[in-house]
Amino acid sequence: MxxxxxxxxxxxxxxxxxxxxxxxxxxxLMNGLxxxxxxxGTSWGLYITCxxxxxxxxxxxxIVASSASVFRVREYKKVALPAVILSTxxxxxxxxxxxxxxxxxxxxxxIVASPNPASPLVWDICVSTLYLAINVVYLAFxxxxxxxxxxxxxxxxRFALPVAILVHSVTAWIFGLEMAKEGWxxxxxxxxxxxxxxxxGLALLLLSLMGLNKSGLFKTDKKLLTNLAGLLATCxxxxxxxxxxxxxxxxxxxxxxxxxxxxxxxxxxxxxxxFEIIVGILIPLAILLFAKNRARMGLVAAASVCVVVGVxxxxxxxxLTSFVEFNVAGAPGVISGSSAAAHAAGTDAWALASAxxxxxxxxxxxxxxxxxxALAFMLLCKKLLPGNRAAADAGPAESGLAGEAA
Length: 406
Description:
The chain is an all-alpha fold and about 400 residues long. The protein contains 15 helices and two strands. It has helices at about 5-30, 45-70, 75, 80-100, 110-115, 120-145, 150-175, 190-215, 220-250, 260-265, 270-290, 290-295, 295-320, 360-385, 385-405; strands spanning about 335, 350. The relative contact order is 0.16.
């Protein structure tokens, strides 16, 4: 099977970006987390934002694939394999961001040696590892040629669906059980994470299937894409409803969340909040509500892009809004701890409010990790999808004879 020039060029670009990301990560390891934009006030930044984002993106593929067996939605079985490939790659990318965020990765063994069972962070590591294992097993059975493999796929799918929901719930509880942060401490955090994971994951799956269609690596019926677009519209509507419930609770007179809502709506994270509401919810919902629009792949692709970018903006405002205000009243505040204040003297080392902007190191590392994920998805699709596997198994001689016969 010949590899096209476009495929080689895309793979080469992604490999170069991955190498740049590795170089930036090595620079971070050598110089410490001081080269990032984080500080004592903002202990999590772009890496954890991307972790939340990619954990969510992994949901759509696995939920669609497992629904084919659990709910007997036979149409979804046609796209189960690329869906699981996408889910596997996304959860691996999410895990990489956690390791990068640790800074001193040489101490990662302490997670296993001395875990704290009461910490939601430990729960998340356990569930995410189980989630990855299920994805790998699922993928192995789906690509196996053994007669009993398909029966095992049906068994694994019954575990995959609840674990997919659980992994996003546990990720949400990392924030939702944090009493010290007013913007996170909410019972609705887990449902909000699960639904936004479903709509962003479905949107990315739609974009991936359209890309595979265009490249010729895998063909998906237009009717099935339209069906998935309808499911996406439902998830967007539920996501918007849950955000509305949370905002109403925070905005109601006398509620404790008024200050946090003010930061979200008019403060530092307001651009991300309003972008998510308008571009991530209202516009794609207005497009996908109409059946005739769901049948137009250009509009479906545009709505899907809006959803993916909008959910990323949601992760930004959800994470950073609660870091703006300190839990300490009055001057001098807290020691900033940022790289900018490292050599400051006197009151310049103190801060009354937190500020964060990602540095070039964080941006290059993120680009490198995402490029590695995209490259892995391309290579796995080329290797594992049915049409390519059949051509590879046929061998060059049989492929040539088939070409002459055609």
